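Re-run with default settings, no changes from the original entry. Doing this only to confirm the output is reproducible before filing.
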Amino acid sequence: MRRYQSLIALVAGCWLLIIAGLAQAEPQIAGYVTRVRGEVVAETATGRQPLALGHALHLGSRVITGADARLEARMKDGTVLTLSERTEFVIQQVAGATPNSGGSSFDLVKGAFRAITAKTETGGSGWQGAQSDPPPAAPSWRVRTPVATIGVRGTELWGGFNLLDAGATTLDVVMLEGKGVYVENASGVTELKQGGDGTTVKGAGVAPLPIKVWGEKKLQAALKTVAW
């Protein structure tokens, strides 16, 4: 009798280990597709999947949009994210997608995006240091690109490459409204403090340019890339 009890306990223990392993292997949901146009796919370690309305987006996914395509998604941190055509965007971390996740982090490989982030408590309207000084603390929402990192504090913004044929390695960022955006790389940092403030990074290793209020032509060209 004890022999059978031991065998049953061993089998039950093995099943528990298998179930736990499967639960850990299952990708964590980062958000859901709320709107889609054209060819949009998500690449993960398990393969490539076309995306449609209502599909889940997972941590680690590389989202790729085709020609004249768009993707809108609501992430678990409250962000509404829109991707332009011919964009590659990697979902690294999203607050709320995993226990104790400290913030949200993405990679913009190429293309352009618009984000309306959830409101955050910053204790003020934005960082007030000198333009050449780094921000005192990293924000909880950021996008890394090949030329600079974009840090956001409860803000609506647009960021992307090759705006108005500026070049595939030229990054433009504009703050549309909100509490503040900084654009930083190893060569410098620029803080955008009010709607219409923009900056440009002309390649890796080149400091972000000082703040420049965008004209209507450039602003509309940026917004057109994420318009439906």
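The first strand starts at residue 29 and ends at 37. Confidence is low (pLDDT under 50) at residues 16-24, 121-137.
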